[in-house]
Structure formats: structure tokens, C-alpha cells
Design a protein that fits this description.
four-stranded antiparallel sheet; Rossmann fold; alpha/beta; 10 strands; six-stranded mixed sheet; binds adenosine-5'-diphosphate; binds magnesium ion; single chain; globular
Length: 242
């Protein structure tokens, strides 16, 4: 496990050899009425650009919390974290929002589409946010690439679970993120539909050379990643890279 030096500035090098994700001693603690809960207790993780990592571990072990930190949706309470050259622990909310827009696609178990927007509007959002004039053209292309050319103006409520997750996939990939984070993306789908969605996900990742972190409790799915990391009780207990 390599430990990178962490200089003070918020932007670190992104040259060859620099991992896309570099976490050392990563901690995440929350306060509750029962006192402090240590959700992540010193996670060391280095992921090279282009790698696919399956994250497995029991329910409640801290997998989703780790993903939230990597996405810049939560902030670590200890340790160091650099993603795509950005020192996430030092960035404010606006900088984190720009970081997500520019570098990260996320797919959740529960799809998280905006119910009042059509499929194409949902997919166009990240591009419109980035000020792209071609947002709707690119959104249509992305939906075509997941086989939904006939569902562009449907609302999420009018789509099956598998179709909703394909819209979420199109949205996650539409801006060409360097990092795709997926949290139990097939958890709400039947086996066949889940397999189809995962085939699409792996196909898109290959096409774009996207680094993938895939949380799953399905060992067969995790094995589609070249490396598996196991988390238990807020710590990495095994890592295929080590
Ligand atoms: N905001 C929070 N406040 C209190 N406890 C939390 C919070 N977020 C997560 N937890 C707890 O932290 C542990 C890890 O949660 P999570 O990261 O969702 O695990 P996993 O995704 O592996 O199931 C669980 O015990 C969960 O209840
Ligand atoms: Mg979870």
C-alpha cells in the first residue's frame, strides 16, 4: 500500500502514477444521542486510474459511508483523501459540487431520479449544470446507448425499475466522469434485469475507461471487478491489491 505525501494545496498532482483515489487513515465519525459512532476507522485505499474495484462486506460495515466520502457528499472526520487530484477534506460545499459535476458519476440502489422530470431531462441535468449547450443532444445519445430511445419523454413513474436504473446509468456517464461510484445498483432489480444493467455498466465503463468502485453483496458481481476489497466494521480487512 503506497502512502502518498499530502502537500497543503487543495489540488494535488494528477500525473501518471498518481492514484485516482488515495485515502490514508480515513475516518468518519458521527455524533448521535448514544454518543459518537465510529463508522470508518482508518481506511487506507489506493485506486489507480482505470481500475475496477468491487467493495463487499456485511450490512452496516461502512460501505455506503465510504462511497459518500469519495463522492464528496460527506466529509471525512480524520485521515487524508484525494480523488482525481482534489483534496476533498479541504474543499467547501461549492468546490465539492464542482468536483462531483466534473469527475464523478453515481448510481444508487434506489435510482434517485427526479420524479417530476422526464428521462431525457434527468440525464441532461448534469450537463446543463455544467453550462453545456448540447445538453439535450448528449442526453439523448446517452439514453440511446442504454437502449432507451423509445423512453425519452417518459417520467420515472412510467418506467420499470430496470429502465429507471438505465436512465440513472445514462445520467451517471453522460458527462464522461473519471470515477463511477455504484452502491448496490442491482439491489432493487430481479436477477435478469440486474444482469442486463450490469452488462451496460461494464460496457460503458470499458468504452470510457472509467474507474469503477462497485459496492455489492453479490460475490459474482464483485468478481466482475479485477480487484475486491472487503470492509468489516469500518475497516478494510482484505484487499486484492495487497
Ligand atoms: N448519519 C449517520 N448517523 C448515525 N449512524 C450512521 C449514519 N450513517 C451511517 N450510520 C451507521 O453507520 C454504519 C455503517 O453504515 P453504512 O455506511 O450505510 O453501511 P453499509 O453501506 O456497509 O451497509 C451503520 O451502522 C449505520 O447505521
Ligand atoms: Mg450501504
Amino acid at each position: 500500500m503506497d502512502t502518498l505525501p499530502h502537500p497543503a494545496p487543495t489540488t494535488l498532482g494528477t500525473g501518471a502514477g498518481t492514484p485516482l483515489i488515495a485515502a490514508t487513515g480515513l475516518a468518519f465519525q458521527v455524533r448521535s444521542q448514544a454518543g459518537e459512532i465510529n463508522i470508518l476507522r482508518g481506511v487506507d485505499l489506493s485506486v489507480a486510474s482505470g481500475e475496477a474495484v468491487g467493495i463487499v462486506g456485511p450490512s452496516g460495515s461502512g460501505k455506503t459511508s465510504l462511497l459518500m466520502l469519495l463522492a464528496g457528499l460527506d466529509r471525512p472526520t480524520g485521515g487524508t483523501l484525494s480523488v482525481a487530484g482534489h483534496n476533498l477534506a479541504r474543499m467547501d460545499e461549492d468546490a465539492l459540487a464542482r468536483f462531483r459535476r466534473d469527475h464523478v458519476g453515481i448510481v444508487f440502489q434506489a435510482f434517485h431520479l427526479v420524479p417530476t422530470m422526464t428521462a431525457i431531462e434527468n440525464v441532461a441535468v448534469p450537463l446543463e449544470f455544467a453550462g453545456r449547450a448540447d445538453a439535450f443532444e448528449k442526453a439523448e445519445e446517452a439514453l440511446v446507448s442504454v437502449g432507451l430511445s423509445h423512453r425519452l419523454t417518459h417520467y420515472p413513474g412510467q418506467l420499470s425499475g430496470g429502465e429507471q436504473q438505465r436512465v440513472a446509468l445514462a445520467r451517471a456517464f453522460v458527462a464522461g466522469p473519471r470515477l463511477l461510484l455504484a452502491d448496490e445498483p442491482t439491489g432493487n432489480l430481479d436477477r435478469t434485469t440486474g444482469q442486463h444493467v450490469m452488462d451496460l455498466l461494464f460496457g460503458l465503463r470499458e468504452r470510457f475507461g472509467t474507474t469503477l468502485l462497485l459496492i455489492t453483496h453479490d460475490p459474482l458481481l464483485a468478481e466482475r471487478c479485477e480487484r475486491q476489497v472487503r470492509i468489516e466494521d469500518g475497516r478494510i480487512v482484505s484487499d486484492g491489491a495487497r
